Fold:
Amino acid sequence: MHCNDMSKQLAGYARGEIPQKKRIAVLRHLQQCAACRARLADLDTIAAALLKAPETPAAPERLARNVMQQARLQSRQTTEVTLGPIAWWRTATVAMRSAAVLALLFGLGLGSLMGTTASPPLVASRNLEPAPQGMNSLQAFRVLGDLPDASLAASYINLLGLETQRTEP
Amino acid sequence: MSEVAVSDETLMSAVAEGDIEAFEQLFLRYQTAAWSVAYRYCSDATEAEDLVSDTFLRILDAAPRYRPTATFRTYFYRVLTRRCIDFARKKRPQPTDTLPPVHAPGLSQAESAIQRERNQLIQDALEQLSQKHRLVIVLRYFEGLSNIVIAEILQTSPKSIERMLARARKRLEPLLHSLLEEE
Structure:
């Protein structure tokens, strides 16, 4: 950059109104040219005085490493927290919380209603034997009646080497 | 689209989605500015490092709530300057000789000593200013920002910035007089 170009740039530099790249070019010229520094001092004394400040040294290398390390840790913690039900509850609106409570109560009510009304007639209608005293929970599977082919329960019984009670249709 | 073309605001949206690589890109773009402001604002390199770390981690933490009502650059400087003011409130009086030695390659010992003296003079002069005036001077003369941009960052009017600058200049002139007489 030449002194002639500087006359157009100095006022902008003094007001901080030139782009960063151009600012650096102007700064470089000012550091080398006493005449342009004097012209700048006429516009802004402090700007001219601060040209004497040595360049800011580069940030220490460990800064980037430390910041990114902490950022990764913080990001992982945030992800874990935001996935939890407590985090959902904290961030949910009142309407969302109310809906969740109602859904939970409805589910509990329906479950308890089905548990008390549906199970006894089902056992009674099949005329299944009650599990003999002393029988463990796995052996008790046999008294529940036929297990459907390829069902999870049948596979479980087979896996344990227990015989399933089969009846011909 | 190349990486260079990705705007700060787009990167910030990615950060909000948990993209840590996008955060690294933003960090690389702004770390020099953050360090420069923190270095000039604090008179302690360790505290300047803490200030920069804290600024970026706060930006990461606030990313899901970030709304691009202003440019990211303005938002970044806003977070940084708030951290500077908070830092100054908590800071206990410190000796001002804790900045790392200024060492430019190719300078003789005598020249390096002169540079150190000048640096100390400038830091001492900046320490004489109020927090806001110091920030305005740093943003204006070390970051090269205009009154309008500084006003956006500090959420005030350009007129108010002009007044602050006038007062800060008046306070600095006698303190930096020896630098001007060197010519």
Q: What stands out?
A: The first helix of chain B runs from residue 8 to 16. The mean pLDDT of chain B is 86.
